[in-house]
């Protein structure tokens, strides 16, 4: 329940259009992952799909978003695990959880198991590796191989990492398909800004939005997202607590380019 809880109860639907940019990643996934999960009968033998996918790239670039969206598109159950919930377990507990995770996922096919920061769980660092992390790693490999060797199983494991070079070599080999998720382009940043601005009253015109996309060169999607959220708070920051008690939503002033310029300085 601890590791599967979120996945079982609060499935968050992510549409393909919610992901700005990353066009080639999306088309790769549609062909290689999503259609095989939806129509397994078409993808057998030499056409059988990869069972392990590694997403790597800078933090905050949408790796989790992609994994969730793949699950939505493939109509698959999404199981997300947090390595820290595994590594802090008593000796032997973590392996049992991994075993349970794969068993529950197999019982809910088609299913996707998403492991964020997979490097911290399955790293190659052997110097300080104790017996329990080795056993945990082996448990994973057994299940990854099990899923890969059985065509009937509609189970996909997606790992995400900012440090692919830290990953255990044997584990990396299991992630047959590896995809780099880069920082967003100017166009993608613009899309993210536009999407967030749709949710608030603002006075920005196309030129100003374009300028913001330009100014956020080097920002990740998550950075752009928090910049917009910060700027969107500006009208509220002007209010005293008493004013905030009584003001109606439609009376709030619009968010302006000046708020964004301030946010760029503050963040
Ligand atoms: P980490 O490596 O830190 O786990 P990540 O690559 O998994 O990060 P996400 O958690 O998917 O990144 O992205 C964080 C947030 O940033 C998302 O919830 C979303 O709001 C925004 N974001 C990032 N990339 C994009 C994108 N390409 N399109 C739209 N929103 C994005």
TrEMBL record:
Residues 49-185 form the AAA+ ATPase domain. Belongs to the AAA ATPase family. This is Fidgetin-like protein 1. It comes from Drosophila suzukii. The chain holds residues 254 to 520 of 543 of the full protein.
């Amino acid at each position: 329940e601890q590791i599967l809880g979120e996945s079982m109860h609060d499935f968050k639907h992510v549409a393909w259009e919610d992901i700005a940019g990353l066009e080639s990643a999306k088309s790769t996934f549609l062909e290689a992952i999503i259609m095989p999960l939806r129509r397994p009968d078409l993808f057998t033998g030499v056409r059988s799909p990869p069972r392990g996918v590694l997403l790597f790239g800078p933090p905050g670039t949408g790796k989790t978003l992609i994994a969730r969206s793949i699950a939505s598109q493939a109509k698959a159950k999404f199981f997300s695990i947090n390595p820290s919930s595994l590594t802090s377990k008593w000796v032997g507990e973590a392996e049992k959880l991994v075993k349970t995770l794969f068993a529950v996922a197999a019982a809910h096919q088609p299913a996707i198991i998403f492991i964020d920061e997979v490097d911290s769980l399955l790293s190659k660092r052997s110097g300080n590796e104790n017996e329990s992390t080795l056993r945990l790693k082996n448990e994973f490999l057994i299940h990854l191989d099990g899923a890969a060797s059985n065509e009937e199983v509609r189970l996909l494991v997606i790992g995400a990492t900012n440090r692919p070079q830290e990953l255990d070599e044997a584990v990396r080999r299991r992630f047959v398909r590896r995809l780099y998720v880069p920082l967003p382009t100017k166009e993608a940043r613009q899309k993210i800004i536009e999407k967030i601005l749709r949710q608030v009253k603002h006075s920005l015109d196309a030129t100003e939005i374009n300028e913001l996309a330009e100014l956020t060169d080097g920002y990740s999607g998550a950075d752009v997202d928090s910049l917009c959220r910060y700027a969107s708070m500006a009208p509220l920051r002007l209010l005293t607590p008493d004013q905030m008690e009584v003001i109606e939503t439609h009376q709030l002033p619009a968010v302006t380019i000046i708020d964004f310029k301030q946010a760029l300085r503050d963040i």
